[in-house]
From TrEMBL:
InterPro entries: CobQ/CobB/MinD/ParA_Nub-bd_dom, DNA_Partitioning_ATPase, P-loop_NTPase. This is ParA family protein. Residues 5-135 form the CobQ/CobB/MinD/ParA nucleotide binding domain.
């Protein structure tokens, strides 16, 4: 079972947005997925309520996280997506402790680049694989926008693994959520849908690599 935690101390970076879109993408692929809304603000739960569908089970809260995850494993869930609040509460560290991979969404911008460092620190302390995902970025014009280039440079200087792609700022991404859908369902041919698909494939590859490092192969090597 792969546990993906969306974390960042910066509110508005895109944790709930990416969790919902990736959740919807998983539902489309009919992969057994569990969403966990660990943020008392309840954005992911609200989206789920609007969605009104049973293709994506949702658990609200992280109080009994270990038990919830154990049950999910018994039920044959393949993917768990956990949304977390933008604070430094113990619940966020607890979610990260259970993660196989932590996704840190980051808007390109000075304040955002500065703010992710606290979350990176927690991942490093807990020895958890993590990756920054640049979100709500200006559209590419042949190459990365200067804002994105700057943000990538800052991450590189800090030796922070950063997804080579980007999620571009797009009204489709917020509009689709208001309808309880993901962008893949709302406008399947859009660039937003394509980007979420690319992110998904990159995450799946990362899980395979992590599994290779920590799983049977590494132990028998
Ligand atoms: N790539 C994007 N394009 C357009 N709007 C976005 C994008 N990512 C996030 N948003 C919008 O920004 C706001 C904050 O995003 P949200 O996912 O709630 O952040 P967080 O969960 O990290 O606080 C929401 O209104 C969301 O719709
Ligand atoms: Mg949120």
């Amino acid at each position: 079972m792969n546990i993906l935690v969306f974390a960042s101390r910066k509110g508005g970076s895109g944790k709930s947005t990416l969790a919902a879109h990736l959740g919807s993408y998983m539902a489309e692929q009919s992969r057994p997925t569990l969403l966990i809304d660990g943020d008392p603000q309840g954005s992911l739960a609200l989206w789920h309520q609007v969605r009104d569908a049973r293709d994506l089970p949702l658990y609200v809260g992280t109080k009994n996280l270990a038990a919830t995850l154990a049950k999910a494993r018994r039920d044959g869930v393949e993917w768990v997506l956990i949304d977390t609040p933008p604070n430094a509460e113990a619940a966020v560290a607890e979610a990260i402790r259970h993660a196989n991979l932590v996704v840190i969404p980051m808007r390109p911008g000075l304040f955002d680049v500065d703010a992710v460092q606290a979350t990176i620190q927690v991942c490093r302390e807990l020895k958890k694989p993590y990756a920054v995902v640049i979100n709500a970025a200006p559209a590419k014009n042949g190459s990365d926008d200067p804002m994105v280039k700057d943000a990538r440079g800052a991450m590189q200087a800090l030796d922070v693994p950063t997804w080579a792609g980007q999620i571009t700022h797009s009204p489709d991404l917020s509009l689709s959520l208001a309808h309880g859908t993901g962008v893949n369902e709302f406008s399947s041919k859009s660039s937003g849908s394509e980007e979420i698909g690319k992110l998904w494939r990159a995450l799946a590859r990362s899980f395979e690599a992590i599994e290779g490092m920590t799983g049977k192969h590494a132990q028998s090597a």
